[in-house]
Structure to design on (172 residues):
């Protein structure tokens, strides 16, 4: 069974329920979110923007599914760049109750397969704050290697956070 599929407008209610349940769990790893984000309308807005960018070819938005096929997270190929770069970054999150079952590892494996075989990309990168050991293990299990360290890279949990930078190449 695939652990990911393309995001759909009908996913707003399920995603809103997941982000509400996991709000406190996800806060240390994500940007500060407005309260609207945690509503069905907020998730509908996120989905509409994601599907618009997908139509433009700059984003591949997916949901992560559990063993029963329920939505338990998101994974994206972000900032898809064509031409000589042929690269994207992967970002993902998983509901607290879905952790520890290999779902994130399987989702990353699937999105990397899609990136290299269906999208024709050469490189996929990812960044994690240094303390996010679980996410780093997901990346390492999928053959990513650390290639850099970016001070004050992204605003996470209200502060400019350093990030470890990882990549995987199609010919690795």
């Amino acid at each position: 069974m695939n652990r990911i599929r393309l995001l759909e407008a009908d996913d707003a209610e399920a995603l809103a329920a997941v982000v509400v349940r996991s709000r406190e769990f996800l806060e240390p790893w994500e940007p500060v979110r407005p309260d609207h984000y945690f509503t069905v309308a907020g998730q509908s807005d996120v989905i509409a923007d994601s599907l618009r960018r997908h139509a433009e070819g700059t984003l591949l938005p997916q949901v992560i599914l559990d063993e029963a096929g329920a939505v338990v997270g998101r994974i994206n190929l972000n900032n898809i760049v064509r031409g000589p770069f042929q690269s994207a970054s992967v970002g993902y999150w998983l509901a607290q109750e879905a952790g520890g079952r290999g779902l994130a590892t399987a989702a990353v494996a699937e999105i990397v397969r899609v990136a290299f075989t269906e999208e024709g990309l050469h490189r996929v990168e990812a960044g994690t704050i240094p303390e996010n050991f679980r996410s780093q293990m997901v990346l390492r299990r999928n053959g990513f290697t650390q290639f850099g360290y970016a001070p004050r890279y992204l605003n996470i949990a209200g502060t400019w956070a350093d990030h470890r930078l990882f990549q995987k190449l199609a010919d690795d």
Notes: The chain has one domain: 4-169. The chain has a mean pLDDT of 96. The chain is about 35% helix and 35% strand.
